[in-house]
Amino acid sequence: MKTYSVCSKSRIFCSVLVYFAYVSLANANDELERAGRCAVNYLQVGHAQNASQTIKQYEQIDTRERAWHLIRTYQLNPSISGSGNNFAVDLNRFVQGQSNSLQLGVNGTVVLFPEASIKDDIDSQDRSAQLSAIQTLAACDDLYGFTPMITAIDLTSDFDCAVSYWLLGAFNPAQRAMASERTRFAMRRHIQVNPDTNAVQLEQQVLAEGQNRGRRIQQGLESANVIQETLGRCESQYGLGQ
Fold first, then answer.
1. Which domain holds residue 170?
2. How far apart are the C-alpha atoms of 112 and 40, rounded to whole Å?
3. Which of 192, 131, 119, 120 is nearest to 162 (CA)?
4. Does the model's pTM come out above 0.90?
5. How many domains does the chain have?
6. Tens digit of pLDDT for each residue in 195-216?
């Protein structure tokens, strides 16, 4: 008596089985790639010098633990299969841009390739790049349910920083030289973000606003504490120390 396999009886049915097996594998690989990419992003932000100045409550967020939670949950480490690969070393090299690929999954079937570095974007002076990096991290938080979610610090405008530094120099002669340099620094940052700005006009606007606010402080219409609070935020977002 002859026996026949399912596929020999129905090529169409066999093709359907193969197709769904392929789709299932592709979906599983996509899931591993997403988890791996987020893990790499979390580890990269841990190397960013400006992370605490751009991410709200950064000191309370353990991005390394989030990365390794994904690695454990989705079994991203190929060495689990006993291949003997030193995944931690390979991962660290990839995170720091020293490797062109990273194998993921028990069988190492998923491969990540370098993308724009979260670290480089966070450490850049480009606010749009910083916000894009933070949005990428927040998307990972949302996808995997991590809290608190990574969000950007609300920055004081460079113009307001320039005015506040000008006021610092106006009211504190001993700090005038330092305040003048930081006023110019804040104005340069303003021009970087707004390249069409006329430097001379900007300087005049900062002077006029500084004099106006100085009069309001002297008249008791505005608290000097507001200026101190603004200066504190400016120092933090610029990575400076008084």
1. 158-238
2. 10
3. 192
4. no
5. 2
6. 899 999 999 999 999 999 999 9
